[in-house]
Amino acid sequence: MHTFQLAIEDGILIATFDVPGRSMNTITREVMADLPALVERIKTDPEVKGCVIASGKASGFCAGADLGEMNQNLGGGAASADADSQLKAAFDAAFTLNKSLRALETCGKPVACALQGLALGGGLEIALACHYRVAANDNPKLQLGLPEAKVGLLPGAGGTQRLPRLMGVMAALPLILEGKSMTAQEALAGGVVHALAPSAELIANAKAWALANPKAKAPWDDKEFRVPGGKPHDKAQQVFMMGNAMLRKQTFANYPAQMAIMQAVYEGLLVPFDAAIRIETRYFVKNMQRPEARAMVRSLFVSMQELNKGAQRPADAPPTDTKKLGMLGAGMMGAGIAYVSAMVGIDVVLLDQSLEGAEKGKAYSKNLVDKAVSRGKMSADKGASLLGRIHTTTDYADLKDCDLIIEAVFENREIKADVTRKTEAVIAPTAIYGSNTSTLPISGLAEASIRPDQFIGIHFFSPVDKMQLVEIIMGEKTNALALAKAIDYVLKIKKTPIVVNDSRGFYTSRVFGTYVSEGIEMLAEGIAPAIIDNVGRMTGMPRGPLELNDDVALDLAHKVRTQTMKDLGAAYEKSASDDIIRRMVEDLGRYGRKNNKGFYDYPADGGKKRLWPGLAEIAPVQVNEAPPPFVDELKKRFLYRQAVETARCFAEGVLTDVRDADVGSILAWGFAPYTGGPLSLIDSIGLAAFVAECDRLAQAYGKRFSPPDLLRDMAAKGETFYTRFAPKKAA
Predict the structure, then answer these.
(1) Does the pTM exceed 0.85?
(2) Is 391 a catalytic residue?
(3) Catalytic residue chosen out of the listed positions 2, 194, 391, 459
(4) Which domains does the chain show, CATH number per domain?
(5) Residues 60-73: pLDDT tens digits?
(6) Sheet holding 496-501, edge to edge
């Protein structure tokens, strides 16, 4: 065998799961080929009284299916004139693992599983097919779960059937639908594992159980078995009734995998187990054929994994390691950047105009540390060490040993130029200077620098400790070494880097702005604000455009618009949203959530926000009802407006890699994840159909929807973004 190492101890076959060349076990083609052989050995070898499956990896048991291989197969396969034969072939291929695990479960001998770390997705499904599971009680990183739903899939190797039969529907459904993980203690309490033991004793524990239980079998293979909490047609009926309602409320039917999970669990629990896993596989295959599954697996796993490995890093640049960071500005962004940097061992010089301001920025880290320590997620010593790495100051001379500078001062070109000159007067010639600006072009800011080739944009998102993305912006003169340094730093702080070229608003701020602006355009048209925000959420966006405007701050939006008008002069194209924002900020002093009044009112006591009644005077309501066709039109405006702007970024060279566009959109502002990102959305619609619809929208609502020539050219040639601009493969 290639992926299991076998040895017999006291009549028990110890099968050590160890995929060659991998730091973590995943279910590869080789694993799929080895499993039937392993089952046959257990079943037919007279020396084997039972089996213990354990991992040979220190990182854990198994992280699930190899989604890279799965991505290659999604929607693939040779075309066949016989659709039924093609569907049967797809079913047979998908049923392979389910069939192997069922054979393991019914081999006639006891099979135990030792879980010392991660067991996710197919990894947990292998464990669930064993008769006994013992998990490590001394590994804080141990996680057990079925996360497939997070990437648009459903468990396809018995997970939708075994977990509800062990835990009951009420406990199992949320875990499967949301992809949540369990700790060892939670799994024991839920009946998912049978025992806990120290890592060093797991195999001995499992072996002892196998020797003591020669006639073990799965609970559901006992005629007296009853599903905990009842079946769907009796005691568990209410769970499904409420579950369907909650699912619709939370997903707006945008995620086919979640609905397929509900159906597979419901139908599977009504029939014997062998029929149940066939039902699961049917739903698995049906879901895999949907564009949402392909797009989500590609963007949320394959592309993200490639970016997290530095796919955009210059191949010939030498490795770099940020050891001391100079953080200019101790506001919310600067404080957050200081925290995530100190967390990974980087020394930070946190500089602000006043020592009081710098200390306030450091206090942000202290609050996070105190919270982590109180919850047992960080030791007091580690917390003290982290805080000790953050040095507060007002003296630029303290920056002299920093190898990377990140500036996050007020969004004003003159202020940024001043701190650039003061910083470059003291830092080493080799140090890289990064600006955290969210809108001002990097090339313009670099004019204040005496070494613009070492000047780069490093754009974080708030709150920094929670947001995964960092947008790196190349100025006109930025060199490859600066890019390598920025990417290496972002990877070191365990975030996902995307790389874009310089432009006003770059990529993320520019395209995110179209979503919130389209909401204000609708407001100006007289559409009721409740309809606007509700439909925004229905598209799959995390929040409505008006409430997002409030969150970001209306006065900030007004400052950005004012600066853009000043910079562009006559070239600036005014819109109805400009006047609404100006009146809200200048005339009414409504800045958004920051001062408890924007498009919404925010009670001082922390009560539920409510739409501001005065909006009716600024934008009189003319449309107060939203029948389905009207809702569909608004949804299309939201999604197509962002998608066409993304295409413009590609046409203008701001974006050069489809992965940056799709992954960046989901991580930065929560662009409808089920689409896989705006370029995946365009590809799934089809270029010709998308261009035609954009032309219609432009005629109806304005030229902001007009497709760039790039889209027309691609449509004429029958191309897609993922074929014409296929990501470069790693060497």
Answers:
(1) yes
(2) no
(3) 459
(4) 4-289 (3.90.226.10), 324-503 (3.40.50.720), 509-588+618-653+657-724 (1.10.1040.50)
(5) 999 998 887 766 65
(6) 390-393, 347-351, 324-328, 404-407, 432-435, 455-459, 469-474, 496-501
